[in-house]
Amino acid sequence: MTAWAAILKVDQWGLRLSEGVSASELARTERALGIGLPPHLREFLAFANGFEDLRGQWRPAWSCKVIVSDNLRAWQMEMLPRTLIGFGDDGASTCFCVHTDLENLEVVRWSWIAQEAEETFTDMPTFWQRWYADSPGSTD
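^ Cell wall assembly regulator SMI1, sequence as received from the core. Prediction below:
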């Protein structure tokens, strides 16, 4: 089990977490998407159903509801390959994604404009740590 409370430095990074979801809500999300969520994304959503960045005033980590609506729309419009599941964004032009391949733990920053991966991270904990370490105002 990932120690999300230690990884997401809520006070230091200025985050407001939404309460995690139940197993039944995760199952509803998977049914709506028509695919299983990777275990690391399921674990994250069980801890926090997305979060708000209070400094940037946007939601970099999406709720299950937004994951369903935005992915279905992006797949239908062919803006996101069906091999990726978006779970958040940078508030501008990239989507944070995990692979639909349940064995692949990588996180990809997908450019909506260029229609390609901008950057790849080893896993979700590494992604969030790097994202906030590299953001303006970070004290990491």
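The mean pLDDT is 92.
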